Amino acid sequence: MPGSSPTSLDAQAPNIEVWNDLVSARDLLVCLVVSAVSAVVALGIAIATGGQLLFWGLGGCVLGFVINCFLVRPKREVRIVEDMQDASEKGAGQ
Amino acid sequence: MTASMLLAMLAAVLAAVVLYSFIGFIPGTDETSVLAPVTLTVVLAGAPPQVVLSFFIAAIVTLNLMNAIPTALVGLPGGVMSAPLMEHAVLLRSRGLAATTIRKMAVGSAIGTVVSIPLAFVLAGLLAPIAEPIKAQAPVILAAGAVLLALLGHNRVLSLLAIVPLALMFSALPALYRSTGIIGEDTSVNISFFLGITVGPMLITLLELLNRNRRAHLPHGTLTEARFSRSGFTSTELRPHRLVTRSEGWWSAAMAALSTPLFVLSPVGLTFLLGESAAARATKGPVQRAERAVTVMSSLTHSTYLAGVIIPLVALGIPISGVSAGPAGPLFEAAPVYTLDHNLHHLLSTPQFITAVTLGALIAVAITYVIAVRWSSPITHFVMRRIPHEAVLSLFVVLILVLAYIDAGVPNMFGVLLVGIVCGTLNRLGVSYGVQFMTLYAAPGIISALAALA
Questions:
Q1: CA angle B305-B308-B312, nearest 5°?
Q2: How many CB atoms lie within 10 A of CB B160?
């Protein structure tokens, strides 16, 4: 199982901390592009059909978010442990 | 008040609870940047003032409690307001007390809400006789507010130095937009700038990723660890014998009451200060101290936020506290729907205020209590496993750019980028959000005073 190392200045580790959590630069780029395209398309439809910019724009943002949730894996190692004492030994270091 | 209005308010409250339950569990999301854009959207969508207010109150009650939960469960802060709780929650978690911690937080939040709302209305009533002279001097008061927040925070000289240059930028950009015909004479783009301030620190980090050298110096890691205790998924007892001890209850109520008149100060600062001083007076060892700390601090996060919104909104209609200038900003100014002369303060009567606030707060407290105690482990688990941080970051960036575009087209998207870069840099240097938001509102006054010196 990779990655029980806490956040450090080790530039070899693949993920970068942005806004208090780890992201992969490549996945972030993918997400930004997907979100931007989704929002631009939604705004384009709103302008072409004379619809409400706000609602279409918001819809585009939400759609992009949902797509991204399926596209990208969170950079978190989630485990359910039996006994909390055991987990805290490692977790407390963060 | 008609039945249909009550139904709309109820729907808004439920929507806020559901939405912010999930947002609250996402680690690291900052309150201002998750509350302001969504509230603004609700305002711009044309929701009636009571509905907007119920939504906002329910949102802060939900968010403040849910933000604290990842702290208790996996030791990751859910947001800025949970920073004071971190140390104590991590200690309790290491003793296997996560479930108790969450119950105590939930009860603390209920105490903070119930104590601060009536007190905030009373204080707003006491302020009312002197409200007119204060309102007449709004430009001076807002400028004084910016200076006051600068003097009360850290980095005083730096913050004072930042005020006038920021005011210049906030006034210069709209002047440029008007002179080039990007916006009309009476259009305001303040709200875009407001969002630019909000997103600033995150934007700076994102831009840093573009510089190979800077990128290498950002903190790196492989995976964020999140470990759950299995018992969190099975134990569902809603009413154990004793949720909080009598002393925890009294300390929570007393500190909530004490924090209410201090509504102009920063909520995080107050929570740290008053919460730690209450915890320091616990004598029966580290566990008792930490338990008192999480209860009292949870109460304080609610009381400081609620007082910071309710008092300026009911008494004055101009944002004179950190909370009202920041997360609650769209309740005061959201052009073209609300302006400083025409916002919730002017549109709602006192009984309407009381109904909307009470409805939003009480329903949110009741539902979030059940969610927190019964489903916090499954929800946090879901969010940790399914919601990538990249998607959250992209959502906020794009949402703010879309709102900037709607405000004043493509030029304004770059304008917001400029505001974000300047404010994010200042934020990183140590100029707090509060000073920056207050300067945005104070900018017209500061510039006319400055012009007199020309």
A1: 150
A2: 15
Nearest to A84 by CA among B83, B239, B89, B106: B89
Interhelix angle B31-44/B3-25, rounded to 10 degrees, is 150
Under-70 pLDDT residues of chain B: 1, 27-28, 235-242
**d(Cα B247, Cα B271) in Å, to the nearest integer?**
18
Q: What are phi and psi of B349, to 5 degrees?
A: -85, 165
Residue A86: predicted pLDDT: 45
* Angstrom distance (rounded) from CA B267 to CA B63: 14
Sheet with A15-18, edge to edge strand ranges: A21-23, A15-18, B220-221
Tell me which residue of B295, B312, B291, B284 sits closest to B254, measured CA to CA: B295
Strands B220-221 and A15-18: antiparallel
Q: Which of B44, B222, B227 sits opposite A79 (nearest CB)?
A: B227
Contact B72, B295 (CB under 8 A): no
Coil/strand/helix, residue B47: coil
Between CA A93 and CA B381 the distance in angstroms is 21
Binary contact (A31, B202; C-beta < 8 A): no
Here the ipTM equals 0.82
> Is B219 in CB contact (< 8 Å) with chain A?
yes
B139 inside 8 A of chain A by CB: no
DSSP labels, A23-80: E-HHHHHHHHHHHHHHHHHHHHHHHHHT--HHHHHHHHHHHHHHHHHHHS--SEEEEE
Give the pLDDT confidence score for residue B18 in this predicted structure. 93
Dihedral angle sign, alpha carbons of residues B26, B29, B35, B40: negative
Residue A75 has its nearest CB partner, among B29, B41, B224, at: B224
> Any CB–CB contact under 8 A between B410 and chain A?
no
pTM: 0.81
Q: Which of B222, B386, B394 sits opposite A3 (nearest CB)?
A: B222
- H-type helices in B209-284, by residue range? 212-217, 231-234, 246-259, 267-280
Say if B41 is an interface residue toward chain A (CB within 8 Å). yes
B68/B81 Cα distance (integer angstroms): 8
Place of tokens 């990249």: B390
Work out the widest C-alpha separation in chain A, in whole angstroms: 60
What's B334's DSSP letter?
Answer: B
